[in-house]
Amino acid sequence: MFRPYNLSFGLVFLIFSSLLNAGSGFAAEVTSQQLADKQILHRGNGSEPQSLDPHKSEGVPSSNIQRDLYEGLITESPSGELLPGVAKSWTVSPDGLRYVFELRAEAKWSNGDPVTAMDFVYSWRRIVNPKTGSYYAQTLAPILNVEAIIQGKKPVTALGVRAIKDHQLEVVLKGPTPYFPGLLTHSSTYPVHQQSVERYGDKFARVGNLIGNGPFVLTEWAVQSHILLTRNPLYWDNANTRLEQVYFYPIDNQASELKRYRAGELHIAESLPLSQIPWLRKNLAEDLRISPYLGIYYFGYNLIRAPFKDNKKLRQALSMVIDREILTEKILKTGETPAYSWVPPNVANYEIQEYEWKAWTMQKRIEKAKALFKQAGYGKDTPLTVEIRYNTSENHKKVAIVVASMWKKTLGVKTKLYNEEWKVFLANRKAKKVTEIFRAGWIADYNDAYSFAELMHSQLLAKSALQADPEKRKQLLQQAERILLEDYPVIPIYYYMSKHLVKPYVGGYEDNVMDHHHSKHLYIMAH
Amino acid sequence: MVTYFFRRLLGAIPTIFLIILISFFLIRLAPGGPFDFDRTLAPEIQANLNAQYHLDKPIYVQFGYYFADILHGDFGPSFQYKNYTVTELIAQGFPVSLQIGLSAMLLALLIGVAAGMFAAYKQNSRLDHLVMTLSMTGISIPNFVVAPLLILIFAIGFSLLPAGGWNNGAMQNQILPIITLALPLIAYIARISRSSMIEVLRMPYIRTAYSKGLPSFYILTRHALKPTLLPVISYLGPAIAGLITGSVVVEQIYGIPGLGRYFIQGALNRDYTLVMGVVVFYGILIIALNLLVDLLYGWLDPQIRLQGRTHVR
Hints:
The complex is a heterodimer. Chain A has 14 helices and 19 strands. Chain A is of the alpha+beta class. The longest helix of chain A has 18 residues, at 394-411. Residues 1-27 of chain A have low confidence and may be disordered. Helix content of chain B is 74%, strand content 0%. Chain B has helices spanning 2-29, 43-52, 59-71, 86-121, 126-140, 143-157, 171-201, 204-211, 216-245, 248-254, 260-268, 272-300. In chain B, helix 4 packs antiparallel against helix 9. Chains A and B meet through helix 6 and helix 12 of A and helix 2, helix 4, helix 6, helix 10 and helix 11 of B.
């Protein structure tokens, strides 16, 4: 199923050949006796999805459903490895700049139309078109001319994407981007059906209008109640789909979601009330899935205002005295792991870069921090008073209180805590006028260190973007992160974990760092 | 009566205009906007989004656009739920809220009035004390405590009813939410009808009825019921409004796709059009309900006659 395509120009090499064996058919190993008669899955799904238009939505609830309704060029296995999707194979030029994707002839839209290279050209032009107003227009930034198109300096036709033939798509990048195939699993890169979009506008993603190319089709959408998907018989790999129907429920109240899970109404609970985790460990240990997730929880400093502007020693001192082990293991007790870096562990082709003082004893860290604190101009007679702002949440409050008490105990810092409603918090954080220290989180869009580029050294990043050699590129990115860490613009607190409840008889479910769980891999076992 | 009706209707117009005006500016005064996210958008995209929703224009121009749309019965597109217009969201959510709300009200009226009347009839008896104690309990326990308790008992404990969800309005999904909503109402109505009944039972015409030798049941239902209901009716207007708007918590806990949730979610997401739509819609609804209650009052109480200019209140 994975054939190299011989291009007319120069040498071509193939990557991701290890995927060869993966292919589809995970569920195939399960015999029909082991399957339950009723293959209907009930999934909790956080809040009501913004939209089922992959180009006009933001947030996890939307993309969870879109993964079932659409399929990109590349898709994922239950454990998150890349698998051929609409593209059955692809080749990369030696300089890493030109990708040619060979599309499956059997890939169809849910109305029977073939999925062609033109569909991708249309869809990707749509997402980068500033008129579309897509929140994820920048996802495709590695492709040639994306930035100029977003800024309105070039027409959308300048996008480095071209249909060579009906089932052959050429993509030209602006620099070698090793994570590009991984990026293509992101829901914003999914194709949309041109005719429906042109005919129905914003209403194309509704029941009756939505034409997708994924393993499921949209059957019911009762806003704030449920979304029902039914198996798509025209999907190219339909033979390996086990579920007949999938229900997604928007449940933004975590306590309610847990109750519905316990009452047997849900097979998968999307989020859990943190306060209940100790109880769940005791009573639903088999169902509880806590696993690493590519995200970091941190405190940021306002670097354009006193006291943190041009005061690296102070920033370092405050970071060093936080005992992250006590915070995560003794106080939060919700499974998070202490963070001493900006890029979390488990990122592909990357070695974790941590502060050397992670290995020091707390006492040694505090001594060093006290010295830095003094050098920064603070002490008993000149105490420091700071503010921590966070968006209203029990968990954020807990973290802020613990950090404040550690600062007080070790450095005598007086901390004022301010909780703000989410949008107020975002506005203040952006304005940088009143904020001093703020709570923040960063979640990767794709499994590569570049997804954490936000705060990293821009020159090194630019260099790494031009580097085709994966080893050299890795070194450059690691160096960029080390520079970031040494400058102490943030206080890493802990790495996020994904937390779900999954009934033990739901098969095909595997924890993965992106926390993507396609319904097409899932099935219900007899129980 | 008809003149009165139209006078009230005319009087409602400035009220509704004020509701629109105040809520329009209030929601925009709140810091943060609909397109403030954790991630930063490219400035060009932000600008385009703002332009699509007229957010780039001065605020009075925005109000002009909005007001013109409303006059056409169009609440505009939702900022958050991009595949739906606000009108569509209200049209989907309101029937659900209404169904739950009215069922709870009906249940509360039946049980509340009956309990209150019996308590009054047997004033200071054990039954009376029991009803009053129960109703005090009903009033004081908030519904965010009652709802999880009911779920724990009936859904998780006995597996009799679903723990949540709407399931296209299936009966079993409605039972717990209706009970949760009805409990405090039953309590209020029982207390109101009890004190009202006690007063009515002291009226000379009731004594006359007794002296004629009429049976108690007949007197209670034929002579005492209607005047007893008067204070209950006047409580109904605000109660129904409160029921539909105040069902936010109940809708959230049971996962019911009603209108109440949009109040909170709309405000949290700075979904200007959705918040406005819901506020204006409720404003109109409450005004209509109050009018209805006043008309009902006039029909029930012969002492009150609603006339054009000289209605006595």
